[in-house]
Amino acid sequence: MAGESASMRPRSDFPADVIDTHIHLSRxxxxxxxxxxxxxxxxxxRRDWTEEDYLASVAKGSCKVKAAVFVECFNRPPVExxxxxxxxxxxxxxxxVAMSAxxxxxxxAAAVAEFLDELREADGALPTGLKGARMVFPAAENxxxxxxxxxxxxxxxxxxGKHGLLWExxxxxxxxxxxxxxxxxxxxxTFIVDHLAHNGNEGGAMEAWGPAIDAIGKCPNVYCxxxxxxxxxxxxxxxxxxxxxxxxxxxxxxxxxNWFVNEAMGDSYDTxxxxxxxxxxxxxxxxxxxxxxxxxxxMKAYRLEI
Length: 306
Known about the structure:
Structural class: alpha/beta
Low-confidence stretches: 1-9
Strand content: 5-15%
Distance between the termini: 39 Å
Helix content: 25-40%
């Protein structure tokens, strides 16, 4: 249609076997674990969001997903959420291949150790499907700009890193400038910045967010997820995509759909995938680069063998 933006037109040139690095699931309304988050959102959130629903959403678009990473989403209690998802990961028929559990790393090493001990197998090993942890900073007790360099959080990260697990930052943009100092203390640990550090758009104006994302991009142990565009609250989404690609390069950006949030907020499954594909085109991505962005980088960051 004339005048339609490129991001509104479906694309068919996505790489094969895409890995979606960020999905949420909930069976709150059908007798599953209680979810303390999405039932309090707007009416469009108030339903179950199952793996079958996810696959149906993917099937409507052109971005064909081979596998997905579940990221915690406040199904309660957190350890039962982890057990529920780990059963999916063990099912060869499930699209879910890995997870980041909700672990209160901000509460220190003891909280991390206690959570991990709950999930250990009979031989004492941690489940292979458990790849990392997240507890969103906007929901944590400390929401200060420097909350990610608070000593107790650093102690929790050290405990997480001892077990070879990664940490996902879900932060307000005003917290992003302190991330480089935090990750520099753990050079052998993998970190992921969810949603371009742009949840809530507090401190997310380009003048503040841009230099922060540039600085994070200089940290070689950090990947950046390129999604949740439905949450950014900006009209110039393409400029944010372009700035992040310039900061991280094609070797350290990850595709994420942020499903089910994207669908609940009115976006089709392919909306963010299209934005990212177009941003990669503008940055001169080759077919090899696109394969990294939509699959290969996820394999490395989450240590997948699929």
